[in-house]
Amino acid sequence: MITRRSLVAGTAALGLAGTLPARAQSSSIVVGTWGGDYGALLQQNIDVPLMKPQGIEVSQDIANQDPRRTKLIAERTSRRSSMDVACINDIDSYMLSQLGVLETVPVAEVPRLSQVVDVFRKPHSIPHIYSALVVLYNPSKVTTPPTRYADIFDPKYKGRVGLSDILWNFNMAGANIGAGGTPTDFTKGKAALMDLKALQPKVYPSNETLAAALKSEEVWISLMWLARGFMWKQAGIPVEMAIPEEGALPILFEAGVPKNSRAKDGAFKYLNAMLDPQAQVAFARKMGYVPTVKDAKLPEDLAKQISLTEAQQAKLRPLDYATMQAQQGAFSDFWNKEFKA
Amino acid sequence: MFALILPAFLVVAALLVGPMVLLARISLNQYSPTQLMIEATTAQNYLNAVSDPYYRGVMGTTLLMAFACTALTLALGFPAAYRLARMESRWKSLVTVMTLIPLLVGNVVRAAGWLGLLGNDGFINASLRGLGLISQPLQLIYTPGAVAVGTIAVVLPYMILTLSSVIESIPRAVEEAAANLGASALTVFRRVVWPLALPGTVAGCVLVFILCMNTYATAVLLGGSQFKMMAPAVYDQFSRGMNWPFGAALAFILLAATLLLTVLGTALLGRRYAR
After folding, report:
1. Which residues of chain B are within 8 Å of residue A75 when distances are taken between CB atoms?
2. Is the pLDDT at A51 greater than 50, yes or no?
3. Which parts of B5-132 are beta strand (E)?
4. Domains of chain B with bracketed CATH
5. Which residues contact residue A171 at a Cβ distance below 8 angstroms, ignoring those fewer than 6 apart?
6. Do B34 and A213 touch (CB under 8 A)?
7. How far is B163 from chain A (nearest CA, A)?
8. The pLDDT value given to residue A22
């Protein structure tokens, strides 16, 4: 039976528990990341070999990109963030830094920043790995290899174009480049997507379901990361990758530390470890993403498959992050209400 | 007496009412792509949602799906609940537990099972192809039918258990008396069992209808990216479009529609029962 005395004692104990630190400062950190290969590679190449010897225990908070970004924003006024390191893509990294969610990365605490390729350096995040949006195709069905993003608009692929719903904004950006649009004006891209809609493209809920559709040859052509194409090809899915002549859209996967992290020391050590050359090469071998640090050397045959040539790198067509943020709602509405509906 | 309900009241107030009030406040704010939202008191988000044909369509799909799934669940659940209620065997408790088994598996895991069954390379298509009955896979997944099947599988145990407890409370002697007086099995059901079970039927339907209106995982995983119900649309606004005020307004519209239909349905059926 609950007496008044025991209730008061219990309440007091609860109050006391609230004042205790949930975990010791810097001795353990939570990394918000994708699951699957990405999470496993972090564990194998960073958490265990690089963080454990420093006395830092790492636990992962696994989720997709959209919920993680939403969680970070929802928690921005909280006393503490539920994660100390957040793995994010470049669009979200810009948005989160604009909204004041991310801490500035101190160069002194992340010395490996000196090795980062200059073009990738940003104040509120570190670049982890990168790739580019390419045209993925089944060589036995698409006999003339595509050369441009616009090839997915070809009427001969009616009903055979497959797109991943989770890459909605990157699909829009790729289609926009293909249609001759500019990073700040998606009018041409939207018009081209509406024309594509008449050719009954299939939109799959995830990258994995798109992979299954490519494998079963339900769809023949798609827009996808070069790295994913590499992985899927390794897994026996009949795909080849074509880097668009007009210039490919780059994607950077980054990591940052929320301002309200209670273990910033450990978190910055983690960012530093993410820039370790060996760890980055491991990501390249398994997932096909290219390192962002100058001293990570890839074996020649691997580099050929997953890297862009110098000429292709010179032609990269980066996003205009300010446009992507300002148009996030409008683009999402277009994708859901007009293109997919 | 008040002290007894105080802990539950505090928990509900803190964990449900508090966030709901916050959400209501957000729904009156103004969307800003650069600042997330600007503090305001405007009904514009509600007006936008109601006047947009896309969201009217999403609401229509949600209502249609919820009504159809509730009706089908009732049709499937009533005979099973009757059989369970009238069971006298020692296996009765085992059958009751077995009815509950689907609830032990989360919606996402269950939907993954349906993917394995209904997918293009799933069990059904693979079997039909193996038997030489089809050359191209049947489109079973990513269809409204798949969502209906998946949703019914989730809500059926709720209906069966609610109905069986009510049917159990109807004395068997009442049915036997009707039969003795010459009523056919159908008449016994129509004139005796159905009216007496109506309060439980209403409760079961309300419970199932609310669950169907708020279907999320099943709609996303089995309906695919082109099929849209309200709960995924709310999530999309928060998580993808970053338009929290509009997402909050959609959430309240869904809540209001569910509440209104639930109250109306209960009142109408309750009145019928009272007669």
Report:
1. none
2. yes
3. 30-32, 36-38
4. 51-274 (1.10.3720.10)
5. A163, A164, A223, A335
6. no
7. 35
8. 44
What is the pLDDT, as a whole number, of residue A25?
46
Which residues does B contribute to its contact with A (CB < 8 Å)? 31, 33-36, 52, 54, 57, 119-121, 137, 220-221, 224-226, 228, 236, 238-243, 246
Chain A residues with CB inside 8 Å of B121's CB?
Answer: 212, 216
Structure confidence by residue, pLDDT tens digits, A221-271: 999 999 999 999 999 999 999 999 999 999 999 999 999 999 999 999 999
> Domains in chain A, ordered, with CATH?
24-130+251-308 (3.40.190.10), 131-249+313-339 (3.40.190.10)
Q: Cβ of B224 and A204 within 8 Å?
A: yes
Contacts of A67 in chain B (CB under 8 A): 239
Instruction: Give pLDDT tens digits for A285-315.
Output: 999 999 999 999 999 999 999 999 989 989 9
Tell me the three state secondary structure of residue A241.
strand
Return contacts of B55-63, CB within 8 angstroms, 24+ apart. Answer: B55/B233, B55/B250, B57/A341, B57/B228, B58/B228, B58/B229, B58/B230, B58/B233, B59/B230, B59/B253, B59/B254, B59/B257, B61/B144, B61/B227, B61/B228, B61/B229, B62/B213, B62/B229, B62/B230, B62/B231, B62/B254, B63/B213, B63/B257, B63/B261
Nearest CA to CA, how far is A37 from chain B (Å)?
20
